[in-house]
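Pair request: fold both.
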Amino acid sequence: MKTKAFAGALRLLVRREHGTHELVNKLLKKGYPAPEIHEAIAECQRLGLQSDQRFVENVTRARIRQGYGPIRIRQELQALQIDRELVDHTLSQEQENWLGYAIEVWKKKYKDRSEPSFSAIQKQKQFLLYRGFSTDTISMLFNELNTNKEKGIALQDWSLTDIESN
């Protein structure tokens, strides 16, 4: 038997993916009884309509496209009470790509800058930290920037192939 909570869950899931905890909270705010909510969510999961795995993958892809790094994405998903192992597994699948993502974010923000001063470099690093990139990734980015500058590679021509060949 489909309940009103199930219908409410479906209406929410049709719009976008939701994590289990987020879905429970939204249904509670709408006034559905807790036992009915848990039953409805279990049914949605059984039917494949709700999946925390899919939710984590969607949020991760969206935040990467928006220029965020793994630390910021992890914090957001943990705030939504998503299972830590699920988050760690999904983010680890992107492990080899974080430097490339950081480069793209940096290039988009600072492509028109000339030779930066020490304080400008610190601000750039702070910006990348705020975006959720690790200090290791940021250090690699600036090491690559210095290496490419020494080789005479212009920023516009800088790509991941330059990094992989070093």
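--- second member of the pair ---
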Amino acid sequence: MKPAEQKPYLKIGDVARLVGVSPSVIRSWESLGLTRPHRTASKYRLYAPEDVKLLKRARFLRKVRGLNAPAIVQLLKRDGLLRSSSNGASSAIGTRLRQLRSRRGLSLAQVAKAVGISVGFLSALERSHMSASVSTLRKLARFYKTNILDFFDPAESNIRLVSPDKRKVKSTIHWVSAKHAVDAEVRLYEHLFKAEDPEDVPAGLDWKANLNPNSLEVVAGAKVEPSLRDATAGEKYQFERIGYFSVDPDSKPGKPVFNRAVSLKDSWAKEAQKAPKK
């Protein structure tokens, strides 16, 4: 019998060159569950060909589609290319943040005030009930005098304050403190046309009959976290239970404007199901 062929594993430096991103980006993607490399006895990462293929897809979505890491994970999971992980990044980050605060003997109120976020939001982060933007994580890293990648340390992510089997979470409430929030303009974009084929109209009408009058909804006075006060054009964020947004060039300091790029709920698919079959 022929011996079984071993997979040609690659180290993180080789994978970074093949994919076209830095090793630090791959490590941060790993913390979000985007890749799960094998580990040697010395804890070195080893990547299989299928890992490289998935990472190349992630780089394409980031560079061509302009998606950030959470949006990439969401899309790959939706397409069945990525399995859900029982040890997600939010759990690892929440545990790490609580450890850093506890070791310094600080209260939630002290840290929240220093960083510029609400106490409720920080508490939700530490309990892994909410996820933070990169901007918020940078502020926390500066406050704790550490590197943002330290929040994603795989060695720390296995340490849990409460084991999963003892958690009894029936639902999660996402909220923003109105007292500390910043007013923003939010532009919710939908499909420009009501039909997949704009030319599919009754006799005597043209494509303009399929224009969607609700393709843009502008929400003025929306409340967002204080950390987004000075968000710069082009930055991308996920708003819990709503979708993924990018900062519009119309934004001004203290008056951010956000454009929805991807919705978490596919209302188009529901409308398509309602349409009569031909």
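Observation on the second member. Confidence is low (pLDDT under 50) at residues 1-5, 153-161.
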